[in-house]
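Q: We require from you a single protein entry containing the residue sequence and its fold in C-alpha cell form, and nothing else.
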Amino acid sequence: MRFLFFVLLTAFSFRTVIATEVEAVRLEEDLLKNETKLSKEELEEKRNRIKEIRKKNYEHPKSFEYSSGNQQEKILPPFHAGKTEIWGGFWEIGFRANAPFADHKSGQDWLIEEPEVAIQHGNFFAPRNYIGYQNQSVLPLVDSRRRVRPDRSVLPSFTFQYTNSKRTWSVEYAHTPLYGSISHSAYGLDFQYAKYESGFVMNEHKMTARIHEQFDKFLWFSWEFGLRYANWKSESSYLSPTLNQAGDMKETANFLAPGTGFRFNLPIVDFGKVDVGGEAFYTPLGGLDYSRRVFKDGPQDIFGLRYSEQFAYQIQSKDLLPMTVSGLEGSANLSLLIASQHRITFGGRLTGYTWRVNESATPQITAFGTSLALALQDVYRSSALYEADGRDGTRASRYFTVTNFYVGYNYVF
C-alpha cells in the first residue's frame, strides 16, 4: 500500500512539474513577443512568476535540521542522530540479534539442468549432495531437505556506523554469522541406504560507504559502495551400513568482493526512517580448499561373500583453487530513534551467491594398499574432468542464498 501511494505521489508530482513548466515557457514566449507592449509592472510580474516556477521545480529546499559545532542549521534528513560530534561526525555502536538460514542448490537440481553428466562414463552416481562444492553422493536418490538453519535460534553480531557532520556521507560495518547443520538420507536399489550429517559455517564482514542525496522533499537516495569479506566451511560425513562404506568431505572457501548499489531512505517524522536497497558484487579473488576421505570394505563375490581386503584413500587439493564469486543482495530496514540516542532497527536481508572454481589442477592422493585404483576412479568421476563437459576445467556454477532477519540496537553518541 505504501509503495502504491509512493507511485501515485510520484506520478502526480511529475505531472505537476510538466504543467507548471509549460506555463513558464508560455510566459517566456509572451515576454519575447510583447516586451514593448507590456507595462513595466506586467513585465516584472511575469518574470517573477517564471522565477517562482523554476525555483519550485528545480531547487529542492533542504528541510531538515542538524547541529555542526555551535552553528544551527535547518536540516533533518533520515540520517539525523547524535548530539556529540567526534572526529567531524557522529558515531553509532551496537549489536544485532540475527536469525539467518541458508538454502543450497541441490545436486539433483543441477543434475536435471545438465543430464549429460548422469551418463558420462556409464556411471549414474553423479554428485548430488546439498552442501559442498564436491557435491558427491554414494547413492542416487536423495531426500529433498536442503535448508541450513542455525544451531541456536539467535546469533549475535557487532555493528557500527559513522556519519559526517553534514550528513552527506556515512560508513557502516556489519557482520552476518551463520552456524548451522543439516542431515539427509540417500537411497539406492536393493534397500541400499546411507545417512549424511553436514555442517555449514559462514561469516561475512561488510563495510559500506554511502553518499546521500536528497531525491525529493520526503525521500532521500544513497549511492552505496561496499567491500565484503566472507568465508565458509562445510563438513559432511556419511555412513552406509548396507554398502559397508563411510567417508567425510571438508571444504573451506573465502573471498574478498567489491560491490555497488543504491538505497532509498524515507524519514518517519523526526524519530526514524525506512530504507530499502540492493547491491551487486563480483570478484575473482576467491579460493577454495577441499579434502575427501573414503573407507570401504572389499567387494562381494557371486556367492555373497565379502573379500577381507579393505580400501582407504584420501583426495585433497594441493593448493588453494581459484574461485570466482558473484551475487545480488536486497535488504530493508525500519529504524526507530528513541530519545535521540537509542536506535532500534528491525531488518531483513537476502543475499544470493553464485560461485565457480577452476579445478583443473591435479589433486593430491593418499591411498593404502590397492586403493589407488579406486582413488583414481573417484577423482575422475567427481572432479572437473568428469563434470566440466567442455568447460575448460571448471565445474558448473554452484549457488546458495542466505536470508537473515535481525533486530538491532545502537547507542548514538
User: Anything to note?
Assistant: The chain has two domains: 2-59, 89-412. The CA atoms of residues 384 and 391 lie 9 Å apart. The radius of gyration is 31 Å.
